[in-house]
Design goal:
Elements lengths: L1 H26 L15 H16 L5 H14 L2 H28 L12 H15 L33 H9 L1 E7 L5 E7 L11 H15 L4 H13 L2 H18 L16 H15 L22 H10 L7 E5 L5 H10 L3 E6 L2 H20 L6 E6 L10 H6 L2 E4 L6 H10 L8 E4 L24 E5 L5 E5 L4 E3 L6 E3 H4 L4 H4 L5 H4 L3 E5 L4 E10 L14 E9 L14
Parallel strand pairs: 3-4, 3-6, 4-5, 6-7
Antiparallel strand pairs: 1-2, 7-14, 8-9, 10-11, 12-13, 13-14
């Protein structure tokens, strides 16, 4: 211990001695005999020095900052004649400073002998770079600037951008090369594709090559050995090689015979349920074959219950996992359109029975054609699906949607985005026939019984084209027209000021709920015959392009049929507010 103390004391003394020596050396430094001239004061500082002492005597209670502020005020109030005195003094001081600096620079100009001499290595480096600079640079080839604009894709994602640029002569040669290639399907039947490797001129027209390759990839999900044939077909498409494309089809068929051999006497292997990707491919294939004029589906009366809109494949896949929709359930789609949702649930969820009801004539006609085509295609691809039916009629009519059908339902999907309050009320009356525990998935909550996104019909004195219901928290109500300063509630559709709602970004607008609708987000709706409906939501979908009418994020509500109670049991998945 004593040795450590002695060592520490010696260290402290040594440090103290070094500090003392440093302070002595600073004091011993010799001042520069020829210091650099100081910059002259400006007219403002000359004026400040002349009045500072007088202002301090007149205002002893002020500090130096306040005194400077007073002097600055007096300087600003002076005219040009009063400032001339100080400007002349500053000019004289500046001239004297320039003369002193000129002499100072002459006295301190570095001598030539004091310049640093270059070493041997520095000289060699300079010579090397000098020789390189004298060499003739190779002439740069003039290349056309790359077109960085993205290639426009077709709505079906079939007309992908081609890597190689083709001349008109080459395109004409490819258009003449048309071959019929047959793919062997899991049911051992052949599907013929008319293949032309020339890209289609119309981007909206599906390319048969892409349809064939997508079919091969769909089969590769179940038989991984087919992947090599798929890759060879992709390379053949990129290189516009018809021989290689034919070889890839032959390899695919030979591999299919090996991995899925015929069992004799026409026995076909047992069909398997399709996964989400295969279901999407089958639906797109059926849609392209049946729906020849998609624009005709958009002809409907605006702001009415007949507004057409489809829930897309990603949203339904999410609902199948979230609700969930199981194999032993009965599913009903109210307003099924062309039947895409019904066929997806029947194939992907393998429901025991799926019903779809559509009122409009044209979608119902397409639905009948798509039903028969879908059954044929799934059989051809070796896939199975649950039983389903597509019915034309009004789901509010008991003859179309019977009480027995409602009583057997386990899950009901209704896209009530454009439904009015009267239609929602009539649906609530029909839902009294549902059994306890039935789940209803809707895009708008039945608690508010308000629909139509707050839009008004073009009837009335104050209503006009593009008029909206307006009810703001600031007290203003009535009818308004669209503006960037307004935001609408995703539930009731009533519009109000953005600043009053506390909304600034477009992302917040896409998920905005007014205060009135917040009270309904977890509510029990009373129904007839002692029944009730527990409303939970909104649940925001993570799927992209979930619906056909907007690319913005969408929300949905889950209603559960039960008996009337004083409190609503809140599940763990409910959204907190």
């Amino acid at each position: 211990m004593e040795e450590e103390r002695a060592r520490a004391e010696a260290t402290r003394k040594a440090v103290k001695k070094v500090k003392v020596e440093q302070q002595v050396s600073k004091k011993a430094q010799v001042e520069d005999p020829d210091p650099k001239p100081k910059r002259p004061m400006s007219a403002w500082f000359l004026y400040l020095n002349s009045v500072r002492s007088g202002l301090m005597r007149a205002n002893p209670e002020l500090d130096i900052c306040a005194v400077t502020t007073l002097a600055a005020q007096g300087w600003r109030e002076m005219d040009s004649e009063e400032r001339a005195e100080f400007d002349d003094q500053a000019k004289e001081l500046r001239q004297a400073y320039d003369v002193e600096m000129k002499g100072y620079r002459k006295r301190h100009k570095p001598k030539k002998s004091e310049k640093k001499r270059k070493g041997r290595i520095d000289i060699l480096v300079d010579q090397y770079f000098l020789e390189i600079s004298k060499r003739k640079k190779p002439e740069e080839k003039k290349t056309e600037p790359k077109n960085r604009k993205r290639s426009k894709l077709s709505p079906h994602n079939t007309n992908l951008p081609v890597k190689k640029a083709l001349s008109e002569t080459r395109i004409k040669e490819l258009e003449k090369q048309v071959e019929s290639l047959a793919l062997l399907m899991p049911d051992h039947n052949l599907v013929v594709f008319e293949i032309c490797l020339a890209p289609p001129k119309d981007e909206d027209v599906p390319w048969a090559v892409d349809d064939m390759i997508e079919t091969m990839q769909c089969m590769a999900h179940d038989y991984p050995a087919l992947s090599s044939a798929c890759e060879q077909a992709k390379d053949a498409k990129e290189n516009f090689d018809m021989n290689s494309m034919s070889n890839s089809v032959e390899l695919f068929n030979a591999t299919m015979m090996f991995v899925n051999p015929a069992k004799g006497d026409g026995i076909v292997p047992v069909p398997t349920p399709p996964n989400a990707a295969q279901t999407l491919h089958l639906q797109n294939l059926v849609y392209h074959r049946v729906v020849k004029n998609p624009q005709a589906l958009n002809k409907y009366q605006g702001f009415s219950d007949e507004v057409y809109g489809e829930a897309q494949h990603p949203l339904i896949s999410e609902l199948i996992q979230t609700v969930p929709i199981a194999k032993d359930m009965v599913f009903i789609d109210l307003g099924s359109g062309i039947g895409q949702v019904v066929m997806q649930v029947a194939a992907q969820a393998q429901c025991k029975m799926s019903h779809g009801i559509e009122l409009s004539d044209l979608p119902a006609q397409y639905a009948q054609a798509m039903e028969s085509e879908f059954r044929s295609v799934t059989k051809q691809y070796g896939k199975c699906h649950g039983d389903f039916s597509l019915i034309q009629g009004n789901f509010l009519d008991p003859e179309t949607l019977s009480a027995q059908m409602l009583g057997e339902a386990d899950v009901i999907f209704v896209n009530n985005v454009a439904f009015g309050a009267e239609t929602n009320q009539q649906l609530l009356e029909r839902f009294t026939a549902l059994k306890e525990g039935t789940k209803i998935i809707s895009m708008r909550s039945f608690a508010t019984q308000v629909g139509g996104r707050g839009r008004l019909l073009n009837t009335g004195v104050h209503a006009g084209e593009g008029a909206f219901k307006f009810r703001c928290s600031c007290g203003l109500t009535g009818v308004s027209h669209y503006s960037r300063d307004l935001v609408d509630c995703i539930q009731c559709g009533v519009w109000q000021h953005r600043r009053c709602a506390g909304v600034s970004t477009d992302e917040e607008c896409s998920q905005f709920l007014c205060k009135q609708c917040h009270r309904y987000m977890e509510k029990q709706v009373s129904m007839k015959d002692g029944m009730s409906m527990d409303v939970l939501g909104p649940f925001y979908s993570k799927a992209q392009n979930a619906v056909s009418w907007t690319s913005a994020p969408v929300s949905y509500f889950i209603h559960t049929i039960g008996r009337k109670s004083t409190e609503v049991a809140k599940p763990a998945c409910a959204t907190e507010y």
